[in-house]
Amino acid sequence: MTQGFCLFETAIGTCGVAWGERGLTGVQLPQSEGGDPRVRLARRYPQAAEADPPPAVADAIAGMQALLAGEPRDLLEVELDTSGLAPLNAQVYEISRAIPPGQTLTYGDIARRLGDVSLSRAVGQALGANPWPIVVPCHRILAAGGRKGGFSAPGGADTKLRMLEIEGALAPETLPLFGGR
User: Label partner for 34 (CA 20 to 30 A): which of 63, 118, 145, 158?
Assistant: First the structure.
């Protein structure tokens, strides 16, 4: 499998995925400002060429489409190329991937699972750098008290809330927390 990228349609708009020899290298959520998502993918992954996805990537795309259509998919089977990740980011992403669809944790919950509540800000920074939104479900991470918090993807917190709504989560004030508090 060589490096490549492609676009695919979902319930929230046109998404993109990039891949390499070790798995997915990135996922792109829809762009809120319009423009051609190919340009952003080509800029982020200059060694990748637009191509038809190989079978494992096609399966990952089908899983993301199913999740964003409301199926309770965890996407744990999707292979990610984690080479080059900082150890803390890798831990944050592993914890995040374990949160079932429709449930949430807070930044503080993840920091506590890492063994140090003072890492909450670092958890937020790791999630802001998440190269695989949807597969590493950073949208399932909330601020203290169940507030929506930030979301660095295009569309910001509105995209985050839309994804949680699709997954069957309730209004932000009553979102179900997964093993938190």
Answer: 63
